[in-house]
C-alpha cells in the first residue's frame, strides 16, 4: 500500500503530476528530451507531495487522533473522515493550544517588561528569618540549617518582588522599599556542590529579614549597593568575611 507515517498510511499512487500546459517550458523542449524531463518532474513533484503529507501527518498525530480513516471523495481525491466526537476533540485540543500560546505570549511580554524597566533582577537563593522583638528571647542559632530556596528577585519601582520563576506572571512575595530599614552583608558560607556562597540581608521594620545569597560576590555587592541607594539605608552591622578563614 505505502509507507506508514506514524499512525497515518500514505498511498503513493494518489499523488500524480498534473498535465503541463501548452505554455509551460517543458512543451518547448525537443521530443527526445521530453521523457527524461517528465520523469524528473514526476519524481520531484511526488517527493514534495510526500513531504507535505508527512508534515500534515505529524501535525495531526500531535493532536492525538488515533488513526484517521481515509476515503475517496466524488472527485477521486483522498479525504479524512472524522466522527462528531473526533471533530469535537480536535476543536478542544486546538482551543487548548491557543490558550497555551496566549499564556506563553504573556510570559514573554512579562519578561521583556522586567528586562526593560526593572532596576535590577536575577536569581538569588532566599530564606527568611524573624528578628526577636524587645523582651523576647534571642532566636535559636540556625545558621547551619540549609533552607535556601532559589527565587527570581526583581527590584522595580517602589518594591522588591520575589518570583518562584522568571516566567511567573505573579510574585510569591513582595516588600515595599519604604519598609526596609537595613541592608547589609552576611558571612559567606559553603554549600555542597556549589562552592562558596556570598550573602546579604534585607531587614524590614516589621522584623522580617530576607537573607539572600549568590555564588558571585560581584552580584551580591551590586544588590547591596542598589538596595542601599534605593532604600536610602545602610548597615549598622559590620560582618567580617570568613570565607578564607581556617
Number of alpha- plus pi-helical segments: 3
Residues in helix, %: 25-40%
> Assembly type of the shown chains?
single chain
Strand order in the largest sheet:
8-7-6-5-11-10-9
Unreliable segments (pLDDT under 50, ≥5 consecutive)?
Answer: 20-31, 237-246
Distance between the termini: 77 Å
Apparent shape: elongated
Mean pLDDT: 75
What's the helix-strand series? EEHEEHEEEEEEEH
Topology, number of strands: 11
- Strand fraction band? 25-35%
Major pleated sheet = 7 strands, antiparallel
Rg on CA atoms, Å = 33 Å
Q: Give the helix/strand class.
A: alpha+beta
Question: Can you give a write-up of this model?
Answer:
With 246 residues, the protein is an alpha+beta fold. It is 32% helix and 27% strand. It has helices spanning 34-62, 84-117, 217-231; strands spanning 4-5, 8-9, 70-72, 78-80, 120-130, 149-156, 159-163, 173-176, 180-191, 195-204, 208-214. The strands form 3 sheets. It has a 7-stranded antiparallel β-sheet with strand order 8-7-6-5-11-10-9. The protein has a two-stranded antiparallel ribbon with strand order 1-2. The protein is elongated, with a radius of gyration of 33 Å. The chain starts with a strand and ends in a 15-residue tail after the last helix.
